[in-house]
Design a protein that fits this description.
3-stranded mixed sheet; globular
Length: about 400
């Protein structure tokens, strides 16, 4: 009767990696360390700890989180989150290497790491709005790995948390708008014409930059002068398509632009459906988010005034309010689900208009139902407004 012997145990005096002979158990030892049993056929070495994500755990977890949420956000939002997380990773790595924190792994972060991060941002002069955005992004990442440290910090140290202040930004000044409309009638060079068309369309419809750049020429109805907006904010979740009327002062330029666009598309990029085509683009033919915003700089240079493309949206809303359009209608045209968003961030009735209505009511006069935008502008004694060119934009 033969007795089978157990396979020999090989003692290794130096660390691996080693390839094990078939049928052998290996115990790797080093001075002062305990033997570790390694699976058959695998190199011997220090086993990875649980939940290890490599040398850069913060970025690894951030990238995994972005892949999960990408379908729920716009492309530009995902890119912005990516940039924000890369900056966070650099800061947490510096804090860890300097000994101010114990880890830069999102799973292991505690109050010490979060407080050090807040202190660092404040020392760098980050405004409260920026601090709020960063903590919101960090909190989403931490919750994704079941880490509630930031929530505990919010409750324990409320005085350190940023205070959100909803301040409505001003629309573009009426004289700048008038200058844009007047200058647009003399433009002939294609790229400058396209830049003016983008800005004037934004002023005439209140569309977001994303909605402008992803509009197609088929979305434009020049008989009814209505633009159908398909790629709205939150289009894959809560967003709804809408039709927006085009203001009278923008119609003439848009009509001239459409004719010029047809020639350019036929010559440079046949088949391009974008309302504002990137004629020299070899991709999908649409402008990238940053590129369409840069078109606006051509208009700034031409008129000698700076403005934000997003401000065109506020200007559209405020102009409609000044003309007497109800806030409910303006909110629908801007694509808001409630009037609270419209009034908080975009536009609302001006105080001088409210004072005028109150005084008229108290004096027994009937308030004007549809005050025009020319009334406050006339007081500025602008030659352009006095000639009533505002409604057409042309002499």
């Amino acid at each position: 009767m033969t007795t089978s012997l157990p396979p020999p145990v090989i003692q290794l005096s130096k660390p691996g990696p080693y390839t094990l002979p078939e049928g052998c158990n290996v115990a790797a030892t080093s001075k002062g360390s305990k033997p570790s049993v390694v699976r058959r056929g695998r190199p011997v070495g220090r086993p990875r700890m649980a939940r290890s994500m490599g040398r850069y755990p913060f970025l690894a977890y951030a990238n995994r989180y972005l892949e999960t949420v990408a379908p729920m956000y716009a492309e530009a939002t995902v890119k912005e989150l990516g940039r924000r997380y890369r900056r966070m990773a650099m800061i947490f790595a510096e804090l860890s290497s300097s000994g101010r924190t114990d880890t830069d792994n999102p799973i292991k972060m505690g109050e010490k790491e979060i407080l050090a991060y807040i202190e660092r941002l404040k020392a760098d002069g980050v405004k409260e709005s920026g601090l709020a955005h960063n903590l919101s992004a960090l909190g989403s990442l931490l919750l994704d790995v079941n880490n509630t440290s930031l929530e505990r910090v919010r409750k324990r140290y409320p005085s350190l948390m940023p205070k959100r202040r909803n301040k409505r930004q001003a629309p573009i000044e009426s004289d700048v708008v008038g200058h844009i409309l007047k200058a647009s009638q003399n433009v002939k060079e294609w790229r400058t014409l396209e830049a003016y068309a983008v800005v004037v369309t934004a002023l005439s419809t209140g569309l977001r930059p994303k909605e402008l750049r992803l509009s197609t020429v088929m979305d434009l109805d020049t008989k009814r002068w209505v633009l159908n907006v398909k790629h709205v904010k939150g289009e894959s979740t809560y967003g709804e398509q809408r039709d927006v009327p085009i203001r009278v002062e923008g119609q003439r330029l848009i009509e001239r632009y459409i004719n010029a666009r047809a020639e350019i598309v036929k010559e440079r990029c046949p088949g391009n459906e974008a309302l504002f085509p990137a004629a020299d683009d070899h991709g999908d033919g649409y402008f990238a988010p940053n590129s369409i915003a840069r078109l606006k700089t051509l208009v700034e240079r031409d008129i000698g005034s700076k403005f934000e493309l997003r401000a065109c949206r506020r200007t559209f809303g405020q102009t409609c309010i000044d003309e007497g359009l109800p806030i409910e209608s303006v909110s629908l045209l801007l694509g808001h689900s409630t009037t609270k968003t419209t009034e908080t961030y975009y536009c609302r009735k001006r105080q001088d208009a409210a004072i005028k209505e109150a005084q008229s009511l108290w004096n027994g006069q009937r308030p004007a139902q549809n005050p025009t935008i020319n009334e406050p502008a006339l007081k500025q004694k602008s030659a352009l407004i006095e000639n009533k060119n505002w409604m057409t934009g042309y002499a």
